[in-house]
Amino acid sequence: MKAEELDKKFDDGEDVLDLFDLSTLKRPALETQAVSINLPQWMIAAFDRESVRLDVDRQSIIKFWLAERLEKDSVKF
Fold first, then answer.
1. Residue 44 to residues 25, 37, 38, 62: CA-CA distances in angstroms?
2. Which whole-number Å values give the CA distances from 19 to 15, 16, 27, 59, in the listed order?
3. How far apart are alpha carbons 63 and 16 in whole angstroms?
4. What is residue 1's predicted lDDT score, i.e. its pLDDT?
5. Average pLDDT score over residue span 59-70
6. What is the pLDDT of residues 30-51, one digit of tens each?
7. Measured distance CA(54)–CA(69) in Å, rounded
8. What is the DSSP string of 40-73?
9. Global model pTM greater than 0.90
10. To 5 degrees, how large is the angle CA 33–CA 63–CA 32?
């Protein structure tokens, strides 16, 4: 299919997702990597209280706060 045909289908509101092989989809710089970090107990307790308050898991709180700080400090991902 030519790009123009795909564009027309999309512009006409047709579902074009089935035309793509999503099994090969990659999100550069968003692959995950496990990291081990030792934190003081008071910090873990603070993360746990915040995770209960926001109803999310501890890992989500940590990732969000780290990303927020990196964005604030203009570190490029």
1. 35, 11, 10, 10
2. 9, 5, 19, 35
3. 33
4. 84
5. 93
6. 888 899 999 999 999 999 999 9
7. 19
8. -HHHHHHHHHHHHHHTS-HHHHHHHHHHHHHHHT
9. no
10. 20
